[in-house]
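task queued by scheduler; priority normal; single chain, no ligands, no partner chains; default sampling; output format set to structure tokens
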Amino acid sequence: MSRERIDRFEELVAAALDDLPEWIRERMDNVEVFIEERAPRGEPGLLGLYQGVPLANRSWYSAALPDRITIFRDAIERQAGDDPARLRKLVAHVVAHEIAHHFGITDDRLRDIEAY
């Protein structure tokens, strides 16, 4: 894997975060975004993963480790193929999807609002 390709993917993730509405960025709390090469073993099609306590479920929350959003580069690139526009769109979608989970929005709700 070329360093240039990895750098470009990292730029796409950073742009997706920057392009979020300001009110979302302001309300994100104690969450970090990571990029990993591959999804966990046994889940090769997983594009992203949210791990943590959603904002909607935090009643007492002090000195906790940050929530973690992981974006899996290989799976996203495979799904996007050789289409740079599709890659950019898919990265933005996965980032927004995982941030929705940070806000407490479930997969079922994302399906209901046709945002899955």
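post-processing summary
- The radius of gyration is 14 Å.
- The chain has one domain: 3-112.
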